[in-house]
Amino acid sequence: MASAYDREDGLAPPQQHGGGPADAYDPNYVPDSVKTFVVHLYRHIRDKNVYEIHQMYEGGFQRLSDRLFRDTPWPSAEAVAPYCDGDHVFLLLYRELWYRHAYARLSPLTASHRSESWNNYCDLFSVVLHGVVNMQLPNQWLWDMVDEFVYQFQSFCQYRAKLKNKTEDELQQLKQFDKAWNVYGVLNYLQALVEKSMIAQILEREKEGLESFTATDGYDYQGGSNVLKVLGYYSMIGLLRIHCLLGDYHTGLKCLAPINLNQQGVYTIVIGSHISTIYHYGFANLMMRRYVDATKEFNKILLYIIKYKQYHQKSPQYDQILKKNEQMYALLAICLSLCPQNKLIDENVSTQLKEKYNDKMTKMQRFDDEAYAAYDELFSYACPKFITPSPPVLDQPLTNYNQDAYRLQLKLFLYEVKQQQLLSGIRSYLKLYSAITITKLAQYMEMDEATLRSILMTYKHKMHAVDSNGKIVSSADFDFYINEDVIHVVESKSTKRHGDYFLRQILKFEETIAELDKVQLD
Q1: Among 65, 56, 135, 60, which Cα is nearest to 100's?
Q2: According to the UniProt record, where is the region Disordered (predicted)?
Q3: Contact status, residue 148 vs residue 241, Cβ threshold 8 Å
C-alpha cells in the first residue's frame, strides 16, 4: 500500500462501506478473486506468515485494486465476513485497508464516512491496547496504519476548515460528527500506544544490550506479537508529524527523542517511515533555528535517496519519495542560505542542490524583495500542510480558514528571515579578516559603532540555538569574540571525511569494471 503523506487534502471514504460514486457498485458482491484474497490473507495472519502477508499486502491488494476497484470501493466488511470466519480483528484490519483505498481512490466524500473511518481506528487501536493481539504484521503495514491515521486526521481538519461552499447537509453532518478526529483523541491514541508498548524503555534497555528490538527489525521470533511494540515505535514518528502540523516543534522533537537518528533503526526499514521521520525532524529543527542538525539529517537522507531510489521505482510510494526528495532539497537550500554549512554537505548532494536551486540561493543571500520572494516560494512549496485543530463556529458567517495556520507559520518564518537581513553583510566582512577593529568595520558597513555592536550581538544570538539536551550550541561555520574593541575571528576547522572520498572512488571503480565486463573482445 502506498503511504499517504503527500496526497491532496479533502478526500473521504464513500457511503456506508460501499455506496460509492459508481451506480453499478454492489457492496455485497464479492468477486471470486477477492474471496481467494481474503481466505489466504486470513490464513497467513493466523499462521503469522509475515512474508506471505507482506506479499499480499504490497502486491495482491494493489493489483486487485487496479484491476477491479480502480474507481469503486472494495466489498463491504460484512460481505467478506464469511470468508474469514467472521473474525473481529481481521475485519477491523480489512476495514482499515478498505477506508485507505477509499481515501486514495474515491472523491468527493463526506463527513459521515470520515467519522466511520475514525470509529474503525478507535476500535482497532482499542483492541491492540486493551485486548490480546497474537499476530505478526509486516512493518510496512504497521507504518502505513499510523501514517494513514495521521493523514486522515490532517485531511479532516482541512475538510472541516473549508466552509464557504458547503451545503446545508454537509454543515449538519459536521455538527453531528463533531467528536470525530478530535485532536486530543488522536494524540491520546498515539501516546497510549507509545506508553502501553513501553517502546521508550525497550530502546533504552537495548543500549545496554538487554533487548534486541532493532536487531530483529521489531519482530518477535519467540512466538509473540510485534503489533503493539512496532505501532508504539511508529507512533512516536506520528506524534512528531502531528506536532509539526500544529506548529509545536519542541514537543514534536521531544516525542521522537527515544529514537537515535545517528544509527540504523526500525524507522529506516520502511522507506516511507525513513523519509517522513527525517523530513519532519529536519523541518522542526529548521523552525527552531537548529540549522546544523537540520542540514546534517537532510544531507544524509538525500544522499541515501540518490544511492537507493532506483530500487524503489516499482514501488507504489515512488512518486511520493520523489516529491519529498524535492521538498527536502528546498528546505536544505533554506538552511544553507540562513546558515552556510557547506562543509557538512556531500559532494553528490551539493551538485544536485546547485542544479535545482543555485539561482534562488544566490538571490536569498541578498535579503532584498527578490530574496524574500524566494524564501516565501521555497517555504510554501516544502512546508507541511499545517492544520487548525479546533472545530469551526458554524453559526458565524461561513468562510474558509484552512490556510490560516500556514499563513501564520509563513509569517513567523519570514519574520525570522527579516531579522537576519544585516547578518549576511556582517558574515561577508568577518570571513575576510582574522581581526578587525569595530571602528573600521562600522565604517565599511556605513553605520555607527553602537548599531554595529547591536548587530554583532544579534548575530551571536541568531547563530546559536538550544539543542535537545538544553545546551546552547553554535550553528555558525565560524565564531568571533571582541577584545579591547577588536573583533577576532575564529574559523572552524572542517573534519576531513576520507571515508566518503574512498567510497566514491570505490563506486566509480565498480561502475568502470561493470562497463568493462560488457565489452566483448574479438
Answers
A1: 65
A2: 1-25
A3: no
Q: Is 483 buried (19+), middle (13-18) or exposed (0-12) by CB count in 10 A? A: exposed
Average pLDDT over residues 407-418: 92
C-alpha cell of 132?
A: 490480546
Q: Of 116, 122, 120, which is closest to residue 177 (Cα–Cα)? A: 116
With a threshold of 0.90, does the pTM exceed it? no
Q: Quick check: 290 and 253 in contact, CB under 8 A? A: no
pLDDT at residue 318 above 90?
A: no
* Beta bridge partners of residue 15, listed in sequence order: 19
- Do 80 and 94 form a contact (C-beta atoms < 8 A)? yes
Question: Residue 112 in contact with residue 68, Cβ under 8 Å?
Answer: no
Q: Which residues of 497-520 are buried (b: 16+ CB within 10 A; e: fewer)?
A: eeeeeeeeeeeeeeeeeeeeeeee
Please report the pLDDT score of residue 516 as a whole number.
82
Burial of 275 per CB tally in 10 Å (0-12, 13-18, 19+) = buried
Torsion angle, CA of 422/428/429/435, rounded to 10 degrees?
120
Q: Can you tell me the distance from the alpha carbon of 247 to that of 280, in angstroms, rounded to the nearest whole number?
A: 11
Peptide bond into 27 cis (omega under 30): no
- Do residues 153 and 181 lie in contact, with contact meaning Cβ atoms separated by under 8 Å? yes
Domain range annotation of the chain: 108-413, 433-491
Instruction: Report which of 179, 182, 129 is spatially closest to residue 153, judged by C-alpha positions.
Output: 182
Three-state secondary structure call for residue 87 = coil
3-state secondary structure of 448: coil
- Count other Cβ atoms within 10 Å, centred on residue 493: 7
240: number of CA atoms within 13 Å, CB side? 25
Q: State the CB neighbour count (10 A cutoff) for residue 223.
A: 8
Question: If DSSP codes are grouped into helix, strand and coil, which group holds residue 275?
Answer: helix
Closest C-alpha to 74, from 116, 138, 107, 31:
31
- Residue that has been written with the C-alpha cell 515505535 in this structure: 233
Residues with Cβ within 8 Å of 163's Cβ and at least 6 positions away in sequence, in order, are 171, 392, 394, 398, 399, 400, 401
Per the CB < 8 A criterion, the answer to whether 68 and 37 are in contact is: no
Question: In DSSP terms, which residues pair with 478 in a beta bridge?
Answer: 491
pLDDT higher than threshold 90 for residue 512:
no
- CA distance linking residue 118 with residue 116, whole number of Å: 5
Do 249 and 288 contact (CB within 8 A), yes or no? Answer: yes
| Closest to 199 (Cα-Cα) out of 225, 235, 240, 241 | 235
| Residues whose CB falls within 8 Å of the CB of residue 324, separated by 6 or more in sequence, listed in order | 5, 6, 275, 276, 279
